[in-house]
Amino acid sequence: MSITLRIVLLFAGIITAIWILRKIYKCKVKLGDAIYWICMAILLVVFGIIPESAYFFTKMLGIQAPVNFIFLFMLAVVIEKLFTLSIKVSQLEDKITVLSAEVALRSNNSEKQITELKEKR
């Protein structure tokens, strides 16, 4: 693995960790999501510091070059995160639909009660 790639991995990992820690400090990210990204930053740093780990996985998986393994690994991790977020969005859309229906029913019920009170007066 080239020294340039190792430096890029170290730099990317450190910058990502600092950025996420600042977001945690400012309360702009959930802790669960922050842990995920901190772990990713740590993996980048590990691959940068210990390139033998990338070589090990490269040989184990039968990939030609460690850089290919790193790109494949990062792509797989990002796709997994995208899939997880897609599931969360779908669940939130379902909750919004239910809440909208509930608000509409309560609003309709309130209007009926108001008209009944006006008619009694």
Task: Give an overview of the whole structure.
- Helix 1 runs antiparallel to helix 2 and helix 2 crosses helix 3.
- The protein has one domain (3-120).
- The radius of gyration is 25 Å and the shape is elongated.
- 89% of the residues lie in helices and 0% in strands.
- The model has no long low-confidence stretch (mean pLDDT 90).
- By secondary structure, the protein is mainly α.
- It has four helices and no strands.
Helix segment tally: 4
Provide the low-confidence segments as ranges: none
Q: How much of the sequence is in beta strands?
A: under 5%
How far do the termini sit from each other?
85 Å
Total domain modules: 1
Give the overall shape, derived from the CA principal axes.
Answer: elongated
What is the total tally of β strands? Answer: 0
Q: H/E order of the elements?
A: HHHH
| Mean of all residue-level pLDDT scores | 90
- Evaluate the radius of gyration: 25 Å
Could you estimate the helical fraction of the residues in percent?
Answer: over 70%
The profile of the biggest β sheet is: none
Structural class by secondary-structure content? mainly alpha
